[in-house]
Structures are given as C-alpha cells and as structure tokens.
Amino acid sequence: xxxxxxxxxxxxxxxxxxxxxxxxxxxxxxxxxxxxxxxxxxxxxxxxxxxxxxxxxxxxxxxxxxxxxxxxxxxxxxxxxxxxxxxxxxxxxxxxxxxxxxxxxxxxxxxxxxxxxxxxxxxxxxxxxxxxxxxxxxxxxxxxxxxxxxxxxxxxxxxxxxxxxxxxxxxxxxxxxxxxxxxxxxxxxxxxxxxxxxxxxxxxxxxxxxxxxxxx
Length: 216
What we know:
Layout: H1 2-13, H2 17-38, H3 41-44, H4 48-70, E1 71-72, E2 77-79, E3 89-91, H5 102-111, H6 115-118, H7 121-132, H8 143-164, H9 167-196, H10 205-210
Antiparallel strand pairs: 1-2, 2-3
Helix pairs in contact: 2-4, 4-7, 4-9, 5-9, 7-8, 8-9
Family: Belongs to the nuclear hormone receptor family. NR1 subfamily.
Protein name: NR LBD domain-containing protein
GO molecular function: nuclear receptor activity; RNA polymerase II cis-regulatory region sequence-specific DNA binding; zinc ion binding
C-alpha cells in the first residue's frame, strides 16, 4: 500500500504547472459564483445543508457555463478579468495537458453552443440558476423545494426566449438549451477528473473542500 501511495505521490508531483495554475485560477471563479448564488433569495432561504450540497454539486457546472461567454473561438482562449496581464487570456491548449479527452470534450461543447445563445448573458445566468437548483445532487435534504425553484427558472427561460425569438424558434431554442444542460453534466464529469488528478497539497483550500480532496 505504501508503494501505491508513493507512486500516486510521484505522479501528482509531476503535475504540469500550467494546468495546476488553471485549476487554482478556477477557485476565483467559483468564489464569485458562490457570492452570486448567495444573492438569490430562494437560495438564501434554504437550509445550510442544501446550500452546501447545491454549491458542491453545481459550482463547476456553473463555472463552465460562465466560461463559455468568455471563450474566444477564433483564438481558442478564455478572456478573463485578471490584474496580471499574462493571466487575462488563457489558451484552451492547456486542457491538452490533462489526462483523457478534456480538450476535445470542451471544444465540442463550445462549438455546438450557438454563439448567439452563449453570448447572451440572460440565457447563461438563467441556465446557471437551473443548474444551481438541481434536486438530484448528493446529500440534498429538501429536493422537492429545490425542484420547485428549478421549475420556476425553466419557466423564466421559456418566457425570456419567447420575448426575443419568434414562437417556433423560441421553443426550438429552449429544447436545444435543455440539451446543452445534459451535455454540461457529461462535460462536468470530465472536468472533475482534472481536479481529482492534481496533488491536493498544491490546490486551493476551497477546491479541496468542494471536491473532498484528501491530502496524500
């Protein structure tokens, strides 16, 4: 067993610094999303156990959704607000350093996300709320209350789309966006794998808590 731990430790120590930097940078985005969630009155009114479960289960999915707005397809990079110039544009190529097919999965998700939807902040914010209020997260206590809240955001999304697109197009767009929510789940599983593959000792405490990382 000690040999296995030693091997795992060695593997972790060879983590690419660029990838590690990206992983730790996501902690900034996740903090913002937690703050944003706390401003939603329905979320604030939920018991603390459910708040924690929803954030733990949904923060990376919300982060992915927010990141699609900042993604520059032409340059294959994210433009993010950061005081350090070299951190203000992150190339998607860094995902190629991760195990598995993270880069390909992410690229597919972006390329099949119509720019007019992914650049519409209203759509992205409502989709973030739909994602946040997912009643099937682990350790949820009041799933019925959460489902009710999620339904109200589904309704809001439909109403919003009806206000910006003609009838049939609005319905078609709604269905396609629901498909993106399903795809988001799959992409999220792949992204979580990246977090679990890095050395917990080199990761921000917030991320360790969210992903229940144990120090080796």
